[in-house]
Amino acid sequence: MNTILNISAYKFVTLNDAPALRELLLQRAVALKLKGTILLAEEGINLFLAGPADDVRGFVAQLHTDARFADIAPKESWSDTQPFKKMLVKVKGEIIRMNHPTIKPADGRAPAVAPATVKRWLDQGFDDNGRPVVTLDTRNDFEVDEGTFDGAIDWRITKFTEFPDALRSHLDDLKDKTVVSFCTGGIRCEKAAILMREEGLEHVYQLEGGILKYFEETDGSHYHGGCFVFDERRALGVDLQTVGLQAEPAAS
Q1: Do 68 and 9 contact (CB within 8 A), yes or no?
Q2: Which of 17, 81, 187, 246 has the highest CB neighbour count under 10 A?
């Protein structure tokens, strides 16, 4: 039976107390015997946790008592074993490293599009204004090799810090198209969409909640393969259950 609840969530919000918050969240997680990783930075929080459902949801309920995190809505999946070995809470320079300091999602998000809308656009081949739609995979190459949207743009980046240069090399290919950036859970495609706007592309959206939310809210049409996840499950299928891994992960 799948008795372990796995959650992932992030939020770009200014945190001026990351070191103190680290100690508080670590104490809470350890008290509940949860395992996983929480990343904190001045730009926000990114978390992956697993444990019995009541304990995981209890942690989220405590997190919601902080007004900065009151609207965090984790994505959920289930497994029959604990996919993490330990509980880590780290303070980093960025919760997802891009090395592009002008990109500050907490100051304003790029427009997001719901999974059901993306599916409808892909069904018909164009957006609601008749503009051609392309999907842009912002993940590392080994993640893409495990599965992606049909016909997705893949620049074969090996780490997210390569995305800005790759974008600038392909700007002309994206003009006059509606670009939907996507990633596992939304965090990378959110930064990517903001950068694309900054670089002058007008019709850019992020896939709300990433691939995992697309799996959760649609039938998975237009996506083939699994979705790589950074824990011992390695990859999830459209049904959010563990699937076998086809690609060996490289350093990210």
Answers
A1: no
A2: 187
